[in-house]
C-alpha cells in the first residue's frame, strides 16, 4: 500500500491525515528526519509558509526533505505547502525560503483582505466532478513553467492547481470540504510512481 507522510509541524495536519486514511493510504505524521524513511509520498499542508520554513530548519527536516523531493518523491502541497514547493514566490516574508521543485510562480496572500477566505467548486483535470475548494489567505499561481500542467482555474482564469511530474500543488484546501477526490488523485500519483 502507499505510505504517505503528512508534514506535522504546523497547520491543517489532522484533516489531511483523515482524508488520506479514508482513501486507503497508510499515513505517517512527519515530525523528525526518521519519519521520512520509507515514505512513498508526502503532503505539505496549509498553515503559514514562513513559519513552516522556520520549523523545517529547527526540526532538521529541510535538507533531507529537499533531497527526497529532488530525488522524485511525490509531494502534494496545499496552500502554504504549495508555496513551499514553488520555484518562485512573490511577497515572501523576510528571510523566508522555499523548498522549490515545482516550476511555478506563486503570489502569497494574493486575494487581498476582501476575499480572505471563500469556498467554490472547480473543474479539475483528471477528476470527473466539480471539486469543492476552500481558499484561506491563499496564494495564486501567476506563472506556470515549461512542462507544468494546469489542473484547475477559478472562473476568472486564475490558476489554482498545477502538476509537474510527481509534484502537485493547489492554492486551496480540499481537506476541509469532505470531498476526498484530490487526495485520491494524489494517492494514484504515488501508486503510479511506485509502479513506475
Ligand atoms: N497565507 C499563508 C502563507 O503565506 C498560506 C495560508 C494557508 O495555507 N491557508 O503561508
Automatic annotation (TrEMBL):
Pathway stated in the Swiss-Prot or TrEMBL entry: Cofactor biosynthesis; pyridoxal 5'-phosphate biosynthesis
Family: Belongs to the glutaminase PdxT/SNO family.
GO biological process, one term: pyridoxal phosphate biosynthetic process
TM ranges: none
Binding positions for L-glutamine per the UniProt entry: 47-49, 108, 136-137
Role: Catalyzes the hydrolysis of glutamine to glutamate and ammonia as part of the biosynthesis of pyridoxal 5'-phosphate. The resulting ammonia molecule is channeled to the active site of PdxS.
Alphabetical UniProt keywords: Glutamine amidotransferase, Hydrolase, Lyase, Pyridoxal phosphate
Keyword Hydrolase part of the UniProt annotation: yes
InterPro entries found in the cross-reference section: Class_I_gatase-like (IPR029062), PdxT/SNO (IPR002161), PdxT/SNO_CS (IPR021196)
Organismal lineage: Bacteria, Bacillati, Actinomycetota, Actinomycetes, Micrococcales
Pfam families given in the database record: SNO (PF01174)
Protein name: Pyridoxal 5'-phosphate synthase subunit PdxT
GO molecular function, one term: glutaminase activity
Active site (UniProt): 79 (nucleophile), 173 (charge relay system), 175 (charge relay system)
GO CC field: cytosol; glutaminase complex
EC number, as in UniProt: 4.3.3.6, 3.5.1.2
Encoding gene (name): pdxT
The keyword Hydrolase is annotated on this UniProt entry: yes
UniProt subunit comment: In the presence of PdxS, forms a dodecamer of heterodimers. Only shows activity in the heterodimer.
Reactions accelerated catalytically: aldehydo-D-ribose 5-phosphate + D-glyceraldehyde 3-phosphate + L-glutamine = pyridoxal 5'-phosphate + L-glutamate + phosphate + 3 H2O + H(+); L-glutamine + H2O = L-glutamate + NH4(+)
Amino acid at each position: 500500500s502507499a505510505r504517505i507522510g503528512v508534514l506535522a509541524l504546523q497547520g491543517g495536519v489532522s484533516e489531511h491525515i483523515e482524508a488520506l486514511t479514508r482513501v486507503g493510504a497508510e499515513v505517517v505524521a512527519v515530525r523528525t528526519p526518521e519519519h521520512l524513511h520509507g515514505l512513498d509520498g508526502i503532503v505539505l499542508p496549509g498553515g503559514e509558509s514562513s513559519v513552516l520554513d522556520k520549523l523545517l530548519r529547527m526540526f532538521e527536516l529541510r535538507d533531507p526533505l529537499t533531497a527526497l523531493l529532488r530525488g522524485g518523491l511525490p509531494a502534494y502541497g496545499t496552500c502554504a505547502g504549495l508555496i513551499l514547493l514553488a520555484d518562485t514566490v512573490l511577497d515572501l516574508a523576510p528571510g523566508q525560503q522555499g523548498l522549490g521543485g515545482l516550476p511555478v510562480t506563486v503570489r502569497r496572500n494574493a486575494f487581498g483582505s476582501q476575499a480572505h477566505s471563500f469556498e467554490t467548486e472547480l473543474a479539475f483535470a483528471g477528476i470527473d466532478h466539480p471539486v469543492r475548494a476552500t481558499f484561506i489567505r491563499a496564494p495564486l499561481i501567476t506563472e506556470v513553467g515549461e512542462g507544468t500542467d494546469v489542473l484547475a482555474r477559478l472562473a476568472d482564469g486564475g490558476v489554482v492547481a498545477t502538476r509537474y511530474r510527481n509534484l502537485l500543488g493547489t492554492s486551496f484546501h480540499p481537506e476541509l470540504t469532505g470531498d476526498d477526490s484530490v487526495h485520491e488523485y494524489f494517492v494514484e500519483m504515488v501508486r503510479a510512481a511506485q509502479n513506475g
